[in-house]
Amino acid sequence: MSKDILDIYVKCYGLSNKINVIISPEPSPIAAMFKYVDEKLNDVNIIFGVSKKAGDEKRFKSAMKYYADNEHINLLDPLTTAVDPYLDEKGNPVSATDARNSLDDPEKLKTFLPKKLTKDDI
Q: Residue 7: enclosing H or E segment and its boundaries?
């Protein structure tokens, strides 16, 4: 189901020709990310999808050391590529935990969804 939702987001933003959503066999998204880079990528620049929310980008600082000696992977510094977090209507950073806690309240859950979604998408 998560893949189906992400596929809708990708389509709604017109990114189907640039993004391919896959299901990870790893239980940890961080472990999955490193494993994918290590096993599937070669001679590329990498930008990890990192937010500036609560210093999240600092968790990836060690990745720079991990890939420093890898001549086939150029990891762009997460401290410089991190993006500002998505904010709710009150200006607070959106949290996945808050979204999960809203699953029983469809109206509240809608506040976490991308604005470009149509009623059919939802």
A: helix 2-12
Q: Which of 14, 98, 92, 86 is nearest to 49 (CA)?
A: 86
Q: From the CA atom positions of the chain, what is the Rg in Å?
A: 16
Q: Can you tell me whether residue 33 is helix, strand or coil?
A: helix
CA distance 42 to 56: 26
> Under a CB-based contact definition with an 8 Å cutoff, are residues 88 and 94 in contact?
yes
pLDDT tens-digit readout, 13-63: 999 999 999 888 889 888 888 899 999 999 999 998 888 887 777 777 788
CA distances from 41 to 21, 31, 70, 75, 118 (A): 16, 15, 12, 12, 35
Cβ neighbors of 8 (< 8 A, separation 6 or more) are 117, 121
The number of C-alpha atoms within 13 Å of 60 and in the hemisphere containing its C-beta is: 25
